[in-house]
């Protein structure tokens, strides 16, 4: 396996996601700051990152591309083509391109750069900003299994990552890309219930959010089926089974499935 710490890493675009990647890579010890290059049009933000993290920064993408073995594209999808065209002549088969631009297929990047370009497409979600992203990784036609492992290593440093086929990225959008927005109202609703029953707002929200976090961690760490974990909590004629019954009565399970399908459908429409 290729070790990331032996590679020079470039990041083009230092917005929220780009900064989250930088901090995650450094925090996890995946690359030394001296081996990391970042570029963006906004110089004050770059200088702040240089002071904070000790990385190399530039407003010129050529500096990042020329000095890096792998380049992460963390720019907005609508400007990606122009960014790619700006440094296309500086890309060769020795450089790995990792794109987190939502909705942009690996084939589009390959066409803009070079037909032999090694491209990995990744879809992280907004939880990257707190180091708990759910990321899906897919390999372009020229990328190797080793390239995919490198991407998995990077994005595992800021949460969890799963390797999927690119044609399933719309499904990923429905589950994890849009998913945080499904959970925030749930946390709010649970806190509302607590307030209705007499808890103060701050305590209710903290308890609700930690409950969601803890339940998710149990699924990830025990690797048990969610139904099995649910049964561990629901004693006969107890409080929990009454709450679960209320959820089922109100169609919560079907509502979440429908939300995933609606988001995935919209993602397919936008990609056409």
From TrEMBL:
Recorded family membership: Belongs to the pyrroline-5-carboxylate reductase family.
Catalyzed reactions per annotation: L-proline + NAD(+) = (S)-1-pyrroline-5-carboxylate + NADH + 2 H(+); L-proline + NADP(+) = (S)-1-pyrroline-5-carboxylate + NADPH + 2 H(+)
PROSITE patterns: P5CR
Cellular compartment(s): Cytoplasm
GO terms under cellular component: cytoplasm
Known EC number: 1.5.1.2
Official protein name in the record: Pyrroline-5-carboxylate reductase
Gene3D superfamilies: NAD(P)-binding Rossmann-like Domain (3.40.50.720), ProC C-terminal domain-like (1.10.3730.10)
Presence of keyword Nucleus: no
Ranges of residues in domain Pyrroline-5-carboxylate reductase catalytic N-terminal: 8-103
Binding site for NADPH: 61
Single GO BP term: L-proline biosynthetic process
Described purpose of this protein according to its UniProt entry: Catalyzes the reduction of 1-pyrroline-5-carboxylate (PCA) to L-proline.
Native source species: Methanohalophilus portucalensis FDF-1
Binding site for NADP(+): 12-17, 74-77
Molecular function terms from GO: pyrroline-5-carboxylate reductase activity
Domain Pyrroline-5-carboxylate reductase dimerisation, first and last residues per copy: 166-270
Keyword terms: Amino-acid biosynthesis, Cytoplasm, NADP, Oxidoreductase, Proline biosynthesis
Matches recorded under PANTHER family: PYRROLINE-5-CARBOXYLATE REDUCTASE, PYRROLINE-5-CARBOXYLATE REDUCTASE 3
Pathway: Amino-acid biosynthesis; L-proline biosynthesis; L-proline from L-glutamate 5-semialdehyde: step 1/1
InterPro entries referenced in this protein's UniProt entry, alphabetically: 6-PGluconate_DH-like_C_sf (IPR008927), NAD(P)-bd_dom_sf (IPR036291), P5C_Rdtase_cat_N (IPR028939), P5CR-like_CS (IPR053790), P5CR_dimer (IPR029036), Pyrroline-COOH_reductase (IPR000304)
């Amino acid at each position: 396996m290729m070790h990331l710490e032996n590679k020079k890493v470039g990041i083009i675009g230092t917005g929220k996601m780009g900064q989250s990647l930088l901090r995650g890579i450094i925090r996890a010890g995946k690359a030394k700051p001296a081996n990391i290059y970042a570029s963006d049009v906004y110089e004050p933000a770059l200088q702040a990152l240089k002071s904070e993290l000790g990385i190399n920064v530039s407003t010129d993408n050529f500096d990042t591309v020329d000095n890096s073995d792998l380049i992460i594209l963390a720019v907005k999808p609508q400007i990606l083509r122009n960014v790619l065209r700006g440094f296309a002549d500086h890309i060769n088969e020795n450089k790995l391109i990792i794109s987190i631009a939502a909705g942009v297929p690996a084939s589009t990047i390959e066409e803009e750069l070079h037909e032999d370009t090694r491209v990995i497409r990744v879809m992280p979600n907004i939880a990257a900003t707190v180091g708990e992203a759910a990321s899906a990784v897919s390999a372009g036609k020229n990328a190797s299994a080793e390239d995919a492992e490198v991407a998995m290593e990077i994005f595992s440093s800021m949460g969890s990552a799963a390797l999927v086929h690119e044609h399933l990225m719309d499904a990923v959008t429905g589950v994890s890309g849009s998913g945080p927005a499904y959970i925030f109202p749930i946390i709010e609703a649970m806190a509302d219930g607590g307030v209705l029953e007499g808890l103060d707002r701050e305590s209710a929200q903290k308890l609700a959010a930690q409950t969601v976090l803890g339940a998710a961690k149990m699924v990830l760490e025990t690797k048990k089926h969610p139904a099995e974990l649910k049964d561990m909590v629901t004693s006969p004629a107890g409080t929990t089974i009454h709450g679960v019954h209320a959820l089922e009565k109100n169609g919560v399970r079907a509502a979440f499935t429908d939300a995933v399908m609606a988001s995935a459908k919209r993602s397919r429409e936008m990609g056409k």
